[in-house]
Here is the input.
Amino acid sequence: MGLGRTGLTEMFGLIFPTNKSKQIKAKNHRKALNDFSDSVFNLKDDKLENIKYNDTNTLAQYLQNIISNVVKKGKAIDIDAGGDKGTTYSVEGVVLKAEITENVGADCILEITFNQNISEKTLIPVLYAHPDELWNNNNDVIMTLQKNSATKINLLLREVSNNSIQKMTVEFILI
Here is the structure.
């Protein structure tokens, strides 16, 4: 059975008092070595992910909690860079709303509202086209970000060629 440092110290004191009286026996020595082996991390045999980090979590659980609390994701789905003013799009994750608020020719503003304060976050947008759409209809877009409040940004889009309705998704990674 595994023992903490205090338990190991107490156990060693009990079964290895001194050897003046010849009380140290082989079975006590084996028991102490077994308890010691069960109590310490072995660099060769043990995996760090299964080691208890604190009273409630293993290291793997603790790191997963950090990642899930630090990195947030959200999406605006099937957006069209040449969409009409007032058009809203499906959203996921930390994105609360995606709506075109201005449209002038090939230029439009897609206002993205988040469900949390993003003013201290690093925002990484990733724009990608759907694989089932013609690539040439979805590759002619210029995108710029403009933060306009603690929970909103403007995604400034320009449809470079006026091919057709586009179907793109923008994913946001907040760190």
